[in-house]
Amino acid sequence: MGEAVENYRPRHFVELHRVEFLRAVFSACRPITLTIRALVFAGILVAAPPGFAQAPSPTIKTKTRLITVDVVATDSHGNVARGLTNTDFKVYEGDGVQQDIAQFKFVDPGMWQNGGPKPNAAPGDFANLTAVGAWMSPTVILMDALNTETDQQMAIRRDMLRFLEKLPPNTQVAVLLLGHELQIVQDFTNDPAILRTALQKVVSPTTNEEYPQEDPDSSSNLEKEAPKPRGMANLSPGLEDSEKREYAASIQKRAEETAEGMKDIADFLSGSPGRKNLIWFSEAFPIWIGANSDFGTDPLSGTGSYQSEVQAAAASLMDSSVVVYPANAGGLEGNPVYSAQQRPTQGELSGAGMAAALKQEDELRQSSEATLQRMADDTGGRACKNTNDMAACVSKAVNEAYYEISYYPNDVKWDDTFHKITIKTSKRGIQLAYRLGYIATNR
Question: How far is Cα 160 from Cα 176, in angstroms, rounded to an integer?
Answer without folding.
Answer: 12
